[in-house]
Design brief:
Strand order of the largest sheet: 3-8-4-5-6-7
Structural class: alpha+beta
Shape: globular
Distance between the termini: 20 Å
Number of helices: 4
Largest sheet: 6 strands, antiparallel
CATH class: Alpha Beta
Order of helices and strands: EHHEHHEEEEEEEE
């Protein structure tokens, strides 16, 4: 079994939301118009104890630690859609309602059921109007920004929420970078 330490993931997110960890590759301005959002989220999850795995397409999540070579990682490490497929496997996270999220859970913006952007919840508190979510992300670098200010890119987009499992089954081969 693997375990997820939400506090460590959130600490990492808050530390590196507005600056980039020089020990990892940087996807700002990647070919194809992408950005660094899912690469950053993967770093947060790794800091929170997620174990890397290699295996069948869709069930691998890994990157070589300490290299800045983008080719030395799985598609799910840096791509929002491939990461969404990895999450759909259900072993480390499950889709949930907005009112079920906790610190360290994730939000993805999706269009036509495919994720385009990934964010981590770095603040959560109750107000008279309900829960207030703060998120952090890269691409448009944000640190603990109120989620109620987030707007989908267009009318075809929506947000989905991912509840991270505190303990999860490890499927695939351990990845040894």
């Amino acid at each position: 079994m693997g375990s997820y330490n939400r506090q460590k993931a959130v600490y990492y997110a808050c530390r590196y939301a507005l600056m980039y960890n020089s020990n990892w590759f940087d996807d700002r301005g990647s070919a194809g118009g992408g950005g660094d959002c899912t690469n950053f989220i993967s770093q947060c999850l790794y800091a929170g104890g997620w174990e890397m795995v290699s295996g069948a397409m869709g069930m691998s999540w890994w990157a070589d630690v300490g290299t800045k070579d983008r080719s030395r990682r799985s598609p799910s490490w840096g791509g929002a859609g491939a990461f969404q497929t990895f999450l759909w496997g259900g072993l480390r996270a499950k889709e949930c309602e907005q009112n079920e999220v906790q610190l360290g859970d994730l939000i993805q913006e999706v269009r036509n059921d495919t994720a385009m952007h990934t964010m981590i919840i770095t603040g959560l508190f109750k107000t008279a109007q309900g829960s207030k979510i703060l998120y952090s992300c890269h691409t448009a670098d944000r640190l603990s920004r109120p989620f109620d200010l987030a707007k989908p890119v267009d009318s075809e987009s929506k947000f989905i929420f991912w509840k991270m499992r505190d303990e999860y089954a490890i499927v695939g081969e351990p990845y040894d970078s």
